Amino acid sequence: MPYRRTTLSKFIIEDQRRTATPEPGLTSLLNDIQTACKLIAVAASRGAVAVVGGVQTQVNVQGEQQKPLDVIANDIMVGTCEWGGQLAGMVSEEMDQPYDIPALYPRGRYLLVFDPLDGSSNIDVNMPVGTIFSVLRCPEGVSEPTLEDFLQPGTAQVAAGYAIYGPTAMMVLTLGAGVHGFTLDPEIGAFTLTHPGMTIPTETREFAVNVSNERFWEPPVRRYVDECIEGAAGPRGADFNMRWIASMVAEVHRILVRGGLFMYPRDTKDITKPGRLRLMYEANPMAMIMEQAGGAASTGRRRILEIAPEGIHQRVPVILGSRTEVERLVRYHAEYDAGTDAPFTTPLFNARSLFRTA
Ligand code: F6P
Q1: CA nearest 147: which of 75, 91, 92?
Q2: What is the pLDDT of residues 49-85, one digit of tens each?
Q3: Using a 6 Å cutoff on CB, does residue 246 contact ligand 1?
Q4: From the CB of 145, is ligand 1 less than 6 Å away?
């Protein structure tokens, strides 16, 4: 019976009723976010561009105004979340500076940080994309937050989640006590609870990384991937599978459902960038989801959620997924930094050596 299902709205209301420390206004904010995600799901299902009013970035053959989907998704998030009175400000991947809530709307106690359309290059090839978001508290007594007010570590997140726009649209959410997945039921237009208490298997035999960057990786990352590729004959003693969808939301979703490891590690491709992914609206929300689902998230050298951000668009190396695999990579980084990974780095003993024993 559809009326017996737990919709996302009902789930949030019940969760806030149960918790000893309810967050006033969070229910309303999350409702606005889920409405925005439904609107983006509809726009994404129409393809690379959708016709809307407002800023003109392209004109199609009918002379209609068109915008790229990531710009549309950003407008939807801002327009759907700015008016409700729960937000003091927003930061988006699509905007250089924090967005001020217009004076005609009441200001609230939360800050919303988001990537409106992650993996947007996938739109042209009809592959999954998604929206990632993170909710922070606005510092006490601040109604007009400055950029510095957003620079809070991931441990300060009140809620985090993503929507994935694939064959079905889903929203995955954590409020700091587990991870729950909701599938959009198009018949009733509501996200309904289909994946309660999602947990990541600790062990995995699947990894996701853009291997075309191998020559730019650090030795511990190369060591890990080499060992996976060696399979049953190598030190891991097991065959591994590899996946790369080029959409962080899709990779994280796969890991939540069946385990695995995803990484966009530090590389030397562009030495001005310590990583590819953004800390505040990609790494932090996904790291909170991973940890809440029993997995882990690290740069290789430190827990992602403990990084003190220095900029709203800061990039970081990201290694996340099944706990034992993330821990193995952290150990490989530590051994490399301490110079104790000789069996891997010394030609006489390394993976391709005749002398290697295990
Ligand atoms: O940050 C955007 C993003 O599209 C991620 O979603 C994805 O994991 C990554 O970039 C893909 O990178 P590449 O273009 O190297 O495959």
Answers
A1: 91
A2: 554 444 445 554 445 455 789 999 999 999 999 999 9
A3: yes
A4: no
CATH 3.40.190.80 in the chain: give the residue spans.
206-349
Q: In CATH, what class is 2-195?
A: alpha beta
Please name the residues in contact with 323: beta carbons below 8 A apart, sequence gap of 6 or more.
200, 202, 294, 295, 296
CA distance 149 to 276: 24
CATH topology of domain 206-349: D-Maltodextrin-Binding Protein; domain 2 (3.40.190)
Pocket residue to mutate for ligand 1, from 69, 115, 121, most atoms within 8 A of Cβ: 121
pLDDT in tens, 86-98: 999 999 999 999 9
CA dihedral 45, 51, 53, 57 (to 10 degrees): 110
Contact between residue 15 and residue 200 where contact means Cβ atoms under 8 Å apart: no
For residue 186 the two structure tokens come to 């198009």
Selection from 299, 213, 285 nearest residue 256 by Cα: 285
Q: Residue 202 is encoded by which pair of tokens?
A: 């600790």
State the DSSP H helix or E strand holding residue 75, giving kind and residue range, or none if neither.
helix 69-81
Cα–Cα distance for residue pair 167/45, rounded to 1 Å: 10
